[in-house]
Protein backbone atom coordinates (compact mmCIF):
# COMPACT_ATOMS: atom_id res chain seq x y z
CA UNK A 1 0.00 0.00 0.00
CA UNK A 2 1.10 3.54 -0.77
CA UNK A 3 -0.08 6.38 1.48
CA UNK A 4 -0.12 9.87 -0.04
CA UNK A 5 0.52 12.61 2.54
CA UNK A 6 0.43 16.36 1.94
CA UNK A 7 -1.04 18.30 -0.96
CA UNK A 8 1.84 17.68 -3.39
CA UNK A 9 1.60 13.90 -3.10
CA UNK A 10 -2.20 13.76 -3.04
CA UNK A 11 -2.46 16.05 -6.06
CA UNK A 12 -0.06 13.88 -8.05
CA UNK A 13 -2.02 10.77 -7.17
CA UNK A 14 -5.69 11.76 -7.51
CA UNK A 15 -5.52 14.73 -9.90
CA UNK A 16 -2.46 14.44 -12.15
CA UNK A 17 -2.78 10.64 -12.37
CA UNK A 18 -6.51 10.52 -11.74
CA UNK A 19 -7.25 7.92 -14.42
CA UNK A 20 -4.46 5.57 -13.36
CA UNK A 21 -5.50 5.67 -9.69
CA UNK A 22 -9.26 5.45 -10.22
CA UNK A 23 -9.80 1.84 -9.18
CA UNK A 24 -11.55 0.80 -5.99
CA UNK A 25 -10.40 -2.37 -4.18
CA UNK A 26 -13.22 -4.60 -2.99
CA UNK A 27 -11.82 -5.37 0.46
CA UNK A 28 -13.70 -7.65 2.92
CA UNK A 29 -14.54 -4.58 5.01
CA UNK A 30 -16.15 -2.73 2.11
CA UNK A 31 -17.92 -5.90 0.92
CA UNK A 32 -19.46 -6.52 4.34
CA UNK A 33 -20.39 -2.88 4.83
CA UNK A 34 -21.81 -2.01 1.41
CA UNK A 35 -22.06 -5.15 -0.67
CA UNK A 36 -20.52 -5.36 -4.13
CA UNK A 37 -22.66 -2.82 -5.94
CA UNK A 38 -22.97 0.94 -6.14
CA UNK A 39 -20.78 3.73 -7.48
CA UNK A 40 -18.68 3.83 -4.31
CA UNK A 41 -17.22 0.34 -4.78
CA UNK A 42 -17.36 -0.42 -8.48
CA UNK A 43 -14.46 0.10 -10.89
CA UNK A 44 -13.80 0.06 -14.60
CA UNK A 45 -16.64 0.07 -17.13
CA UNK A 46 -19.41 -0.44 -14.54
CA UNK A 47 -18.19 2.49 -12.45
CA UNK A 48 -17.92 4.78 -15.49
CA UNK A 49 -21.49 3.94 -16.50
CA UNK A 50 -22.81 4.55 -12.99
CA UNK A 51 -20.86 7.79 -12.68
CA UNK A 52 -22.19 9.02 -16.01
CA UNK A 53 -25.75 8.18 -14.94
CA UNK A 54 -25.27 9.89 -11.57
CA UNK A 55 -23.94 13.06 -13.17
CA UNK A 56 -26.87 13.10 -15.59
CA UNK A 57 -29.37 12.85 -12.73
CA UNK A 58 -27.66 15.65 -10.79
CA UNK A 59 -27.61 17.92 -13.85
CA UNK A 60 -31.31 17.20 -14.41
CA UNK A 61 -32.09 18.21 -10.83
CA UNK A 62 -30.26 21.49 -11.37
CA UNK A 63 -32.39 22.43 -14.40
CA UNK A 64 -36.01 23.36 -14.86
CA UNK A 65 -38.50 25.66 -13.16
CA UNK A 66 -38.46 23.81 -9.84
CA UNK A 67 -34.74 23.20 -9.80
CA UNK A 68 -32.62 22.02 -6.90
CA UNK A 69 -31.62 25.48 -5.72
CA UNK A 70 -35.27 26.58 -5.52
CA UNK A 71 -36.05 23.54 -3.40
CA UNK A 72 -33.11 24.29 -1.11
CA UNK A 73 -34.30 27.89 -0.74
CA UNK A 74 -37.77 26.66 0.22
CA UNK A 75 -36.32 24.25 2.78
CA UNK A 76 -34.17 27.03 4.24
CA UNK A 77 -37.25 29.20 4.74
CA UNK A 78 -39.00 26.34 6.56
CA UNK A 79 -35.90 25.77 8.70
CA UNK A 80 -35.88 29.41 9.76
CA UNK A 81 -39.52 29.09 10.81
CA UNK A 82 -39.09 26.00 12.95
CA UNK A 83 -35.48 26.65 14.04
CA UNK A 84 -33.54 23.41 13.62
CA UNK A 85 -32.52 21.77 16.86
CA UNK A 86 -28.99 20.94 15.77
CA UNK A 87 -26.32 23.06 14.08
CA UNK A 88 -22.59 22.65 14.06
CA UNK A 89 -20.85 25.45 15.97
CA UNK A 90 -18.37 27.39 13.85
CA UNK A 91 -15.80 29.06 16.13
CA UNK A 92 -15.66 32.46 14.38
CA UNK A 93 -16.92 36.03 14.53
CA UNK A 94 -20.58 35.55 13.62
CA UNK A 95 -21.17 39.27 14.00
CA UNK A 96 -18.87 40.02 11.08
CA UNK A 97 -20.81 37.62 8.87
CA UNK A 98 -24.08 39.22 9.93
CA UNK A 99 -22.81 42.72 9.27
CA UNK A 100 -21.74 41.71 5.78
CA UNK A 101 -25.10 40.10 5.03
CA UNK A 102 -27.00 43.17 6.28
CA UNK A 103 -24.81 45.53 4.27
CA UNK A 104 -25.25 43.64 1.01
CA UNK A 105 -28.67 41.95 1.04
CA UNK A 106 -32.11 43.41 1.61
CA UNK A 107 -34.05 41.72 4.45
CA UNK A 108 -36.62 40.36 1.99
CA UNK A 109 -34.02 39.13 -0.49
CA UNK A 110 -34.26 35.41 -1.28
CA UNK A 111 -30.72 34.18 -0.78
CA UNK A 112 -29.27 32.29 -3.75
CA UNK A 113 -25.94 30.59 -4.36
CA UNK A 114 -25.00 33.43 -6.71
CA UNK A 115 -24.97 35.78 -3.71
CA UNK A 116 -21.72 34.18 -2.49
CA UNK A 117 -19.88 36.44 -4.96
CA UNK A 118 -21.12 39.49 -3.02
CA UNK A 119 -20.40 37.99 0.40
CA UNK A 120 -16.67 37.16 0.41
CA UNK A 121 -16.25 36.92 4.18
CA UNK A 122 -19.33 34.72 4.59
CA UNK A 123 -18.08 32.50 1.78
CA UNK A 124 -14.62 32.37 3.39
CA UNK A 125 -16.10 31.31 6.75
CA UNK A 126 -18.00 28.45 5.11
CA UNK A 127 -14.89 27.27 3.27
CA UNK A 128 -12.77 27.51 6.39
CA UNK A 129 -15.36 25.51 8.33
CA UNK A 130 -15.11 22.76 5.71
CA UNK A 131 -11.32 22.85 5.92
CA UNK A 132 -10.88 23.11 9.68
CA UNK A 133 -13.77 20.77 10.54
CA UNK A 134 -12.99 18.30 7.80
CA UNK A 135 -15.06 15.15 8.38
CA UNK A 136 -12.74 12.84 6.44
CA UNK A 137 -10.39 10.96 8.76
CA UNK A 138 -8.00 10.01 5.94
CA UNK A 139 -9.60 9.10 2.65
CA UNK A 140 -10.96 6.12 0.75
CA UNK A 141 -8.70 3.45 -0.67
CA UNK A 142 -8.01 3.55 -4.38
CA UNK A 143 -6.23 1.08 -6.61
CA UNK A 144 -3.91 1.51 -9.58
CA UNK A 145 -5.63 0.25 -12.72
CA UNK A 146 -2.32 0.25 -14.62
CA UNK A 147 1.38 0.86 -13.99
CA UNK A 148 2.14 4.49 -13.26
CA UNK A 149 4.60 6.86 -11.58
CA UNK A 150 3.82 9.01 -8.53
CA UNK A 151 6.35 11.65 -7.47
CA UNK A 152 8.98 9.76 -9.43
CA UNK A 153 8.26 6.39 -7.81
CA UNK A 154 7.07 3.51 -9.98
CA UNK A 155 3.74 2.11 -8.82
CA UNK A 156 2.56 -1.24 -10.16
CA UNK A 157 -0.92 -2.07 -11.34
CA UNK A 158 -3.05 -3.37 -8.48
CA UNK A 159 -1.22 -1.36 -5.80
CA UNK A 160 -3.50 0.08 -3.13
CA UNK A 161 -3.27 3.87 -2.77
CA UNK A 162 -4.60 5.81 0.22
CA UNK A 163 -4.88 9.59 -0.33
CA UNK A 164 -4.72 11.24 3.09
CA UNK A 165 -7.12 14.16 2.54
CA UNK A 166 -6.78 15.16 6.19
CA UNK A 167 -3.10 15.91 5.61
CA UNK A 168 -4.03 18.19 2.70
CA UNK A 169 -6.37 20.53 4.56
CA UNK A 170 -3.77 20.84 7.35
CA UNK A 171 -0.70 21.13 5.11
CA UNK A 172 1.45 23.91 6.60
CA UNK A 173 2.92 24.68 3.18
CA UNK A 174 -0.50 25.84 1.97
CA UNK A 175 -2.24 27.18 5.09
CA UNK A 176 -0.79 29.99 7.22
CA UNK A 177 -2.37 28.67 10.44
CA UNK A 178 -3.49 25.11 9.62
CA UNK A 179 -4.52 24.19 13.20
CA UNK A 180 -6.43 27.41 13.81
CA UNK A 181 -9.83 28.45 12.45
CA UNK A 182 -8.93 31.35 10.18
CA UNK A 183 -11.28 32.62 7.41
CA UNK A 184 -8.40 34.75 6.11
CA UNK A 185 -7.06 31.58 4.51
CA UNK A 186 -9.61 32.30 1.76
CA UNK A 187 -9.27 36.09 1.56
CA UNK A 188 -6.69 38.31 -0.09
CA UNK A 189 -5.37 41.52 1.46
CA UNK A 190 -8.31 43.48 0.01
CA UNK A 191 -10.88 41.12 1.51
CA UNK A 192 -11.73 39.39 -1.77
CA UNK A 193 -12.49 35.68 -1.75
CA UNK A 194 -9.79 33.46 -3.24
CA UNK A 195 -9.94 29.76 -4.05
CA UNK A 196 -7.16 27.56 -2.71
CA UNK A 197 -5.85 24.58 -4.65
CA UNK A 198 -5.24 22.64 -1.43
CA UNK A 199 -8.93 22.87 -0.50
CA UNK A 200 -10.05 19.31 -1.20
CA UNK A 201 -12.78 18.38 1.32
CA UNK A 202 -14.72 16.59 -1.43
CA UNK A 203 -11.64 14.81 -2.81
CA UNK A 204 -10.74 15.42 -6.47
CA UNK A 205 -10.15 13.77 -9.82
CA UNK A 206 -12.19 10.90 -11.20
CA UNK A 207 -13.41 9.87 -7.75
CA UNK A 208 -14.49 13.33 -6.59
CA UNK A 209 -17.76 13.41 -4.64
CA UNK A 210 -20.64 13.64 -7.11
CA UNK A 211 -22.69 15.61 -4.61
CA UNK A 212 -20.09 18.35 -4.19
CA UNK A 213 -21.99 21.10 -6.01
CA UNK A 214 -25.25 20.27 -4.24
CA UNK A 215 -23.46 20.32 -0.88
CA UNK A 216 -21.90 23.71 -1.64
CA UNK A 217 -25.27 25.21 -2.57
CA UNK A 218 -26.97 23.78 0.52
CA UNK A 219 -24.24 24.93 2.88
CA UNK A 220 -24.23 28.49 1.59
CA UNK A 221 -28.01 28.97 1.50
CA UNK A 222 -28.71 27.33 4.87
CA UNK A 223 -25.77 28.97 6.66
CA UNK A 224 -26.49 32.45 5.33
CA UNK A 225 -30.20 32.23 6.10
CA UNK A 226 -29.55 31.02 9.65
CA UNK A 227 -27.02 33.76 10.40
CA UNK A 228 -29.30 36.43 8.97
CA UNK A 229 -32.22 35.29 11.13
CA UNK A 230 -30.59 34.23 14.41
CA UNK A 231 -27.85 34.98 16.88
CA UNK A 232 -26.34 31.77 18.25
CA UNK A 233 -24.88 31.48 21.72
CA UNK A 234 -24.09 28.81 24.29
CA UNK A 235 -26.72 28.09 26.97
CA UNK A 236 -26.43 29.98 30.25
CA UNK A 237 -23.70 28.57 32.43
CA UNK A 238 -21.85 26.85 29.57
CA UNK A 239 -18.48 28.47 28.96
CA UNK A 240 -17.10 26.31 26.17
CA UNK A 241 -17.73 23.20 24.10
CA UNK A 242 -15.55 20.23 23.22
CA UNK A 243 -14.08 20.97 19.79
CA UNK A 244 -12.31 17.61 19.55
CA UNK A 245 -13.77 15.05 17.16
CA UNK A 246 -15.12 11.55 17.66
CA UNK A 247 -13.09 9.17 15.49
CA UNK A 248 -15.03 6.79 13.27
CA UNK A 249 -15.54 6.16 9.57
CA UNK A 250 -15.93 9.96 9.55
CA UNK A 251 -14.95 12.57 12.12
CA UNK A 252 -17.96 13.62 14.18
CA UNK A 253 -18.39 16.48 16.67
CA UNK A 254 -19.32 15.86 20.29
CA UNK A 255 -23.00 16.63 21.02
CA UNK A 256 -23.79 20.03 22.53
CA UNK A 257 -26.57 22.59 22.72
CA UNK A 258 -26.92 26.09 21.28
CA UNK A 259 -29.49 28.80 21.80
CA UNK A 260 -30.91 30.43 18.66
CA UNK A 261 -32.07 33.95 19.43
CA UNK A 262 -34.13 35.80 16.76
CA UNK A 263 -32.41 38.96 15.54
TrEMBL record:
Gene3D superfamilies, per the entry: Cytochrome P450
Superkingdom in the source lineage: Eukaryota
Classification via PROSITE patterns: CYTOCHROME_P450
Cofactor: heme
GO CC aspect terms: cytoplasm
Record GO terms (molecular function): heme binding; iron ion binding; oxidoreductase activity, acting on paired donors, with incorporation or reduction of molecular oxygen, reduced flavin or flavoprotein as one donor, and incorporation of one atom of oxygen
One record GO biological process: organic acid metabolic process
Chain sites annotated for binding heme: 209
Keyword tRNA processing attributed: no
UniProt xrefs under InterPro entries: Cyt_P450 (IPR001128), Cyt_P450_CS (IPR017972), Cyt_P450_E_grp-I (IPR002401), Cyt_P450_sf (IPR036396), Cytochrome_P450_fam2 (IPR050182)
UniProtKB keywords: Heme, Iron, Metal-binding, Monooxygenase, Oxidoreductase
Family as reported in the entry's similarity comment: Belongs to the cytochrome P450 family.
Full protein name: Uncharacterized protein
